[in-house]
Amino acid sequence: MYQSELWQPTATLPTLKKRAEIFHQIRTFFYERDVLEVDTPCLSLGSISDPHIEVLTSQTRTLGQDVTYYLQTSPEYAMKRLLAAGAQSIYQLGKVFRAEEIGRRHGIEFTMLEWYRLDFDHWQLMNEIDDLLTLLTGAEVNSERLSYRRAFVRYLNVDPFTASLECLQQLSFDYTEYGLQETDRDTLLELLFATVIEPNIGTDEPCFIHSYPVTQAALARQQQEPDGHMSAARFELYWQGMELANGYYELTDPDEQAQRMAAEMAERAASGRAYRQKDERLISALEQGLPRCAGVALGVDRLLMLLLNHKHIDQVVPFGGAHA
Amino acid sequence: MASYSTSELRSGNKVMVDGDPCAVLDNEHVKPGKGQAFNRIKLRNLKSGRVWERTFKSGESLEAADVMDTDMEYLYTDGEFYHFMLTDGSFEQHGADENAVGDTVKWLKEQETYVVTLYNGAPLAVTPPNFIELEVTETDPGLKGDTANGGSKPATLSTGAIVRVPLFINIGEVLRIDTRTGEYVSRATGK
């Protein structure tokens, strides 16, 4: 991929100036709210269990020993270890890495803003995200709040919690010609969401999708809906065709966290994905006690694309793609 | 047999889908926030010409189609097959049927070079050059002096194709035609 002639930046200098101004505004926003900036390591000896995120690794030798470091895909584990050790609300603005396809909206390395608010639930955190977007856009932002269930009813006329597998298979096939053999409900739901719902939400004001199926909880706690069914206290923010942020009312129960981690590790092994050092230090931290909190990770490069009206992620970073 | 991973497919790759050879036109990566990644692939079925989109799980593999584009000279038709010869000096000949020749039949001229797509060694499709020079065999008499922009009239060419030409064109003239649009470009300068 290396080409010696690609020495020039992929972003213009005015864009880089704007990028710096937005970093400054973000830091001021949190400083004024008494949220502490932290910078946890990019290189960690343990990694995440998520079955669908691939991680970059780095090899070195130290004290006569071969050592593998994993590049962080998000500072989530490390920040929760800080919270369990007694830190107050914290934020981090820094680089994260994923071993995934590079494209218009994906870089192998990108800038993430992640923050945790003590004594917040996910509803309060959504309000704070609106405040931040209001500051950065210079105009009042009132994002739509739409539950995962209502989004499916609105755009596909189906209840994702109660629809039969056959119904989801047929719907998925109708829209994508994929799905008749797929037996995993979440895969079908995710495909339908990405294909049919995503292009229709957040087209004007941003849109929070919330209350996910418990099988898509990731690191969110479970909650009971007014009608009795359980959902995950997780939300995602969509705006103009882009997924901008993912947040949770955080799971604090170490036993449930350990179970989810084990299940994900098993899923990775079953699908033949690379082994990664499990990071039980997160579970130890939860045993020590993670305070009640909500947290969110927001893709800053994508937000810059929207704010500055750029179509490709490379246009908002100094050296994107093959220029890196 | 070679195969491609759906996440690595790019425009121009030829793959087998539902038993038919297809050309990849576009490959869009679809990654939900969490969860399985997909590739939405735009394909052209090389047999039917149909263009459509299919979604695959990322990392799934598709068999490569044994499809090859070759330059061949058109020789003659025996009424059933259209015979072509490789221009690589091998003199190897292939007979293409009506389906393979398709719409290109109206641009078939002896000794002209065409791109013949071979699938498992047999002609699957015949693509004409972008521009071709053909003689007018039938048209209304030319109007003297009318060389400026004006109307147009139909003209039948030596291959049987009918194109709109300017009023000043006469029978026996050789015209340059854009085969992609079927439109008259100019009088041929060569002959």
Automatic annotation (TrEMBL), chain A:
Top-rank EC class of the record's enzyme: ligase
Keyword line: ATP-binding, Elongation factor, Ligase, Nucleotide-binding, Protein biosynthesis, Transferase
Pfam families named in the record: tRNA-synt_2
GO biological process: lysyl-tRNA aminoacylation
Top-level lineage group: Bacteria
EC number(s) given by UniProt: 6.1.1.6
Catalytic reaction(s) noted: D-beta-lysine + L-lysyl-[protein] + ATP = N(6)-((3R)-3,6-diaminohexanoyl)-L-lysyl-[protein] + AMP + diphosphate + H(+)
Protein's recorded name: Elongation factor P lysine(34) lysyltransferase
Organism: Marinomonas piezotolerans
Automatic annotation (TrEMBL), chain B:
Residues recorded with modification N6-(3,6-diaminohexanoyl)-5-hydroxylysine: 34
UniProt protein name: Elongation factor P
Species annotation: Marinomonas piezotolerans
A single BP term in Gene Ontology: peptide biosynthetic process
Subcellular localization(s) per the UniProt record: Cytoplasm
Similarity comment: family membership: Belongs to the elongation factor P family.
Pathway: Protein biosynthesis; polypeptide chain elongation
GO cellular component term, pick one: cytosol
Keyword annotations: Cytoplasm, Elongation factor, Hydroxylation, Protein biosynthesis
Modifications the protein undergoes after translation, according to the UniProt entry: May be beta-lysylated on the epsilon-amino group of Lys-34 by the combined action of EpmA and EpmB, and then hydroxylated on the C5 position of the same residue by EpmC (if this protein is present). Lysylation is critical for the stimulatory effect of EF-P on peptide-bond formation. The lysylation moiety may extend toward the peptidyltransferase center and stabilize the terminal 3-CCA end of the tRNA. Hydroxylation of the C5 position on Lys-34 may allow additional potential stabilizing hydrogen-bond interactions with the P-tRNA.
Domain Elongation factor P C-terminal: 132-187
Ranges of residues in domain Translation elongation factor P/YeiP central: 69-124
Pfam family of the protein (one): EFP_N
